Amino acid sequence: MSIPTKYSASTVERKWYNYWMEHNYFHSVPDEREPYTIVIPPPNVTGVLHMGHMLNNTIQDVLIRRARLQGKNACWVPGTDHASIATEAKVAAKLKAQGIDKNDLTREEFLKHAWEWTEEYGGVILEQLKKLGCSCDWDRTKFTMDDDMSEAVIKVFVDLYNKGLIYRGYRMVNWDPEAKTTLSDEEVIHVEQQGLLYYLEYKVEGSDEKLTIATTRPETIFGDTAICINPNDKRFSHLKGKRAIVPICGRVIPIIEDDYVDIEFGTGCLKVTPAHDENDKVLGDKHNLEVVDIFNEDASLNSFGMHYEGQDRFVVRKAIAKELETKGLLVKTENHINKVGTSERTKAVIEPRLSDQWFLKMGDLAKPAIDAVLKNGEVKLFPKKFENTYRHWMENIRDWNISRQLRWGQQIPAFYYGDGKEDFVVAETIDAALELAKEKTNNQQLTTNDLSQDTDALDTWFSSWLWPMSVFDGIRNPENEDIKYYYPTNDLVTGPDILFFWVARMIIAGYEYKNERPFQNVYLTGLVRDKQRRKMSKSLGNSPDALQLIETYSADGVRVGLLLSSAAGNDLMFDEALCQQGRGFGNKIWNAFQLTNLWDVADIEQPNSSKIALEWYESKFQAALVDIEDHFSKYRLSDALMTIYKLIYDDFCGWMLEMVKPAYQQPIDAVTYKKVMSIFEDNLKIVHPFMPFITEDIWQYIKERSPEDALIIARWPETKPIKAHLVSEFDFASEVISGIRNIRKQKNIAFKDAIAFSVVNNENVNTTFDDVISKLGNLDSFNYINEPLEGALTFRVKSNEYFIPMEGSIDVEAEIKKLTEELNYTEGFLKSVQKKLSNERFVAGAPEQVVASEKKKEADALAKIETLKSSLASLK
Fold this sequence. Notes:
Structural class: alpha/beta
Number of helices: 27
Distance between the termini: 61 Å
Largest sheet: 7 strands, mixed
CATH topology of the domain at 546-722: Isoleucyl-tRNA Synthetase, Domain 1
CATH architecture of the domain at 546-722: Orthogonal Bundle
Mean pLDDT: 92
Low-confidence stretches: none
Strand content: 15-25%
């Protein structure tokens, strides 16, 4: 087989990925082997590959490839999420560009456009993952809007409703005015923003008295329906039972008393706007206040906003402040920092809004999931520190708002048959709903034409929380072969930002529908940041093109670059130099293979140096394997890779190949060569999960192999006994070899010139590696002596003394000349320093650190002169 001298990453990557696909290595079906299952965190169907995906999916591929090598039935299920808000926004934008308002379309018409868009652009990211080398079972690819996946979601909704866990309620919700939908509490990000605190005056009805009230949102005065004071606040006790007049709109509102108002905070008076603040809504319910909603769904003001109708809330805020100031009703403004809720998806400022929504009761559902992580350890988080975050979320869990005012998604299976709020039934199909409606109304004349389905869609997370079960059809067919074999899955790899959104909810669903955990281990990656610690994002322009990185540095190089500094849970400071290092590692392995490929093999006696070298590396490999297994068990993939990197780069390429390499134009013995290639194969096996392409390429070049012998399905190296004494003895021997090489370099002794060597063995070091030292140091003799040699070049390793006689090793006259010149220069330098230090004005006037630096120069020069004189004396 012809082996190219240069490695072409793009050619190799295309070649072997096609080969793996052609031979179905990624596909899994249940059999007698132990299953190892990972479900991909489904990226948005709208998405393209970015650095976070690169890191997350590289980690998953490392785990799945290692499981294959361990002989497990590895199954990695890929797929995408329909991403209601993001996808609907993209489709709406496309329609707008065509002059079409999505609101002018029927649901069916809009969904037709959404499916067309999804079919055109959806799944691009999955194709991009193939470029990275991801070995997903592509035959099992799922989409959260697939018919069977949607059926599972609807089935679960109906089941939870029938259990009394889903209900419809008129509640204060988080409204995203850009997406025009409600969001759950977890989808609201609270961001610190600089704003203003406005002090407004409200007249007390029937008097000249005025009340000053502070607010950050003056535009909401149109929704005020009361002013609240503390009943124990003597400043305002005379106002009990009176009424106030809202500025501009002139609405007369009651002054109420409630100890909710903090006497010490602000002015002691609170404006109450029940439609636009959760706490105000509680007060409003308690005191039977009117509810006045002043906003349209896009957060512009409605008719209650009077002459501001149709204007955006933030535009109105500035305008109304000017109007209040003109009317003498704005007392003052102050700078004010507060936390503003923003949409996790659109970044729009959230508007609290009263609305009829669907909710899922979470209190009892969450209990088994709390125990699984925090009490019995059935589900383990890596790193463990995230248990505190998990505890905070789960022990303070609130009912989940699961309805969204969107069309793209599973439509809520509630069917209305009348005008009342309770005139509905919940069923999986309209035919089933009809039967329920007939029974509920005792009206057998009803038809499906009398029913109208709820127009809301379910929260996207309500489908993805079923992911580990629904991808195996475990909701619709709970006893099917796949779900029984693959569930629970083994590892989940995801980011900590969705620990509650997704991870916790999957655990909840797993215990509710399978009565067991959905996965055993959760590996939480960090965020990918740039060298300035900024989160990578398109807006900052600091996120490199993922596919361009692969093209420049190879898929293997990028994978290694990402993982070398990506400890679990810690953010990755990404630097392209890491990818360069990864590519360099690949080149090192390729060049090592090229070296072995150049050797001629002959049936000659094996040198003792090669025998010892091979025994040493076998133990070194086994010791590393123990560490690698330990790192994998703790999900320290970066540490596992670094152990492999050092083993191959330093020990295999840097030492072992040098120890066994035949002399120039000489053959290598067959026994050594066979063992070297066996070791090379074991090296390839442990590198393969991290660098799949180059390892498979070299594996297939080592010898002709059938598809059944491909590296991707080879067996992980077996653990064997470690000869620890060989490892420690070589560590000592390597220092001796380095000492010999340093002297050769310093004294310009050519390596081709063999030299005599003697040792005073004070450490009683074993002679095991003497033949290796002789070979790598090119020694023509290796003698053990009792007394130091006079007039020889020397160095120490611990208390052992090593000697190289100068006679025959170096040109003595040239060395004397060189040392004399260096001595003369150093003595001249010393005089100049001492002259400066003898100058009292310099010593008294110079900064302390400058004087200290000169004194150090003096001490260094004195020490060097002594060494040079000693060396010269030994030569004469």
